[in-house]
Amino acid sequence: MCRFIETIQVRDGKLQNLAHHNRRMNETRQAVFGMADQLDILDYTGDCPESGFYKCRVVYGREVCEVAFSAYTMRTVRSLRLVGSDTIDYRYKSMDRKELEALYALRGNQDDVLIVRNNILTDTSIANVALEKEGVWYTPRTPLLKGTKRALLLEQGVLTECDIPSDEISSYSHIALFNAMIDFQSLVLEINRDTVIRI
């Protein structure tokens, strides 16, 4: 059964951050299916476009089931609404996004939701986040999904993990949204009453 996905940024024929995508895919296969073998996404992407900016979507279960390339346009996000769920579980990048979609539906007039679990910030519906304070970028210690870009930025020392209580957001100056397709600091909002809305 094919239940999981990897979304990979492709720039001029090169799959970005492939090591972290392979690691997450194989860790998911091991945890969910007990598969100990190691697959390499590169073995399944022979039709990769040679120029331009694309999204590569890899669908997998025990094995890789489908690979597709498509043009990518970044969603416009200018405001976030805080929403809470203490039970949401999205530790694996599943094709089943019903819980995330239900929370996204609560966004009201805002562009996306910033999800709070047990009073601690996690992610938006599409991205990991980092908050800036005095020139240092902090990312939630317990995100809904440990993203591949997040893993790379932590490895590079760009981000620092910490718990960010939802009632302390105003002590930070900016919030950055990022994922495999959205480069870090390409989508940054100043934190104020117009950009981060409480229910």
Automatic annotation (TrEMBL):
SUPFAM superfamilies: D-aminoacid aminotransferase-like PLP-dependent enzymes. It holds the Pfam family Aminotran_4. GO terms for molecular function: catalytic activity. InterPro entries: Aminotrans_IV, Aminotransferase-like, BCAT-like_C, BCAT-like_N. This is 4-amino-4-deoxychorismate lyase. It comes from Bacteroides cellulosilyticus.
